[in-house]
Amino acid sequence: MSNKNFGFGTQIRKSPYFDSTVKWGATGFSVYNHMYIPRDFGSPEENFWNLIEKAILCDVAVERQVEITGPDAYKFTQLLTPRDLSKLSIGQCKYVLITNNEGGIINDPVLLRLAENHFWLSLADSDVLLWAQGVAVNSGLNVKIKEPDVSPLQLQGPVSGKIMLKLFGDSIKDIKYYWFREYDLDGIPLIISRTGWSSEFGYEIFLRDGSKGNELYEKIMSAGEEYGLKPGHTSSIRRIEGGMLSYHADADINTNPFELGFDRLVSLESDINFIGKDELIKIKKNGVKRKQVGLTINCKPLEGPNTTFWPVKKNGNVIGKVTSAVYSPRLKKNIALAMIEIGNSKIGNELEVLAHNGKFTAKVVEKPFYDPKKKIAIS
Fold first, then answer.
1. What is the pLDDT of residues 187-244, one digit of tens each?
2. Where on the phi/psi map is residue 5: left (φ > 0), alpha (ψ -120 to 50), or beta?
3. Cα–Cα distance measured from residue 309 to residue 202, given in angstroms and rounded to the nearest whole number
4. What's the distance, Cα to Cα, between the start and end of the chain in Å?
5. Hey, what domains does the chain have and what are their CATH numbers?
6. pTM for the predicted model, two decimal places
C-alpha cells in the first residue's frame, strides 16, 4: 500500500514505533501477527547494503511475546517444544520449535528465560498465545499465560556494537550471543539480547513500556547517525543468504523438524515430555519423504523476493516447491530455499523451476549460501 492511502484500521494493531517509522520514510506496510510492519524504506538492495556495511534499525514489534509464568512455567514451556531446555540458564535465549500433536511446526520463536519460572516466546507469525492458553487449560499445570507490554526493535549490522556502546556503555560488550540483560535507558525499561533475524552481528532491544516507543526509536537513530545507521526493514536477501526460515513460507503446520534438518532441536532420547513426541519418534524412525534444500536459479536477476510458491520439476514431474527466492547482489546469483522430494535432494542435482516469469534451470547447492558457520552473527 502506498503512504498516500495507508488505510489503517483499528482491528490491526500499530507498533509503538509506528509514527517514527513513517517519519523516517516507511512507504509500505504489511500485516504480521495481526500488526502492521513497515516493509519498505526504498530499495531492498540498498537496505541490504546498509545492513551488511553499516547498520539498520528495524521495527519488529510484530514479534509479539507470549509470557509464561507460575509455579509450573518451566514444565509447561518444555511441554510446548521438543528442544531440551534443561540447560537453559536465566538470562539465556534459545531458538526453539513449537510442535503440534502430529509433529507439525506451529512456530519457530526465540525463547528467553527471565527467571526460574518466567519465560517469553518471541514469535514468528502465528497465534501461539491462543495455542498456549488452550494447552494450559488441558495441562493440569499451574501457569499464567498472557501477552506482556513488550515490543522489540532490531539493531543489526557491523557497526551496531558501536551504537550500543554509545547508548549503554561498556557493559553491553559482555552480552554473549543468544544471551540478554535488563537495562534502563533514561527511564525507558529494556531487555537487550544478542539475537536478530538477519545473520549479521546485532541486537534485539525489547521495550517494556509501549508509551515510550517513538522516544526509544529516535534515541537510537540519533546515536547511530555518526555511524551511518539507517532506518530499515528485515532483509529477505540477507536472511535467505543465511538460510533463515520465514514461517508460513519455508515452514508451516504441515512441515516437521526433520524435513528442515532440525534434528538438533528435537530431543527424542531424553525423558522430557513434549507435545508431538510420539509422532516425531515415528517420523524419525520411518524417515522423511521431503527435504529443504538450497537452489541457485539460472535466470536474469529476480526483481524482489517471490510472493507465491514456485513448482519445482524433475523430468516433467512436480517434485516440490520453491518457498523463498531472491537475487543476491553480493553473490551475483538467484538463490532460493525449496522443499523437494528427498530422492532429488542431492547436491548438484539439476532441476527446473516454474517461476512467475518463465521456466528456468536450477541446481541443488549447499545452504546457507553465505557464512555457513554464522561467524558474523556470533562474532
1. 999 999 999 999 999 999 999 999 999 999 999 999 999 999 999 999 999 999 999 9
2. beta
3. 30
4. 38
5. 18-63+149-239 (3.30.1360.120), 65-146 (3.30.70.1400), 290-369 (2.40.30.110)
6. 0.96
